[in-house]
Structure to design on (99 residues):
């Protein structure tokens, strides 16, 4: 049974890539045909050093009127190094107020 009317390939894999930075809208999707060999590349030197752990959208009911915005996004990020070393006290909270 088809669940969509989008003409997707019947076999193979769609691989999704994104830049894991706050506010980034960069990314792309690559189709890899079935049976095609793939290898994971090393990340570039300027690869993001922080990982997005959680993202929450808060509307006016959650935020109130103090910030003069329609909603707020709260992000929790941590460096790859700190996460690997289990230094959870290094997790940072970043917010973005959108109106």
């Amino acid at each position: 049974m088809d669940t969509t009317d989008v003409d997707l390939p019947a076999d193979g894999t769609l691989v999704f890539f994104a830049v894991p930075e706050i506010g980034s809208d960069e990314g792309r999707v690559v189709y890899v045909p079935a049976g095609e060999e793939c290898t994971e590349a090393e990340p570039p030197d300027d690869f993001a050093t922080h990982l997005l752990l959680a993202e929450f959208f808060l509307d006016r009911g959650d935020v109130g009127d103090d910030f003069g915005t329609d909603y707020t996004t709260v992000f929790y990020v941590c460096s790859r190094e700190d996460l690997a070393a289990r230094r959870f006290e290094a997790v940072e909270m970043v917010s973005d107020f959108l109106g």
Remarks:
- Strands lie at 13-18, 27-32, 50-59, 71-79, 92-98.
- The two ends are 42 Å apart (CA to CA).
- Residues 15 and 40 are 12 Å apart (CA to CA).
- The mean pLDDT is 75.
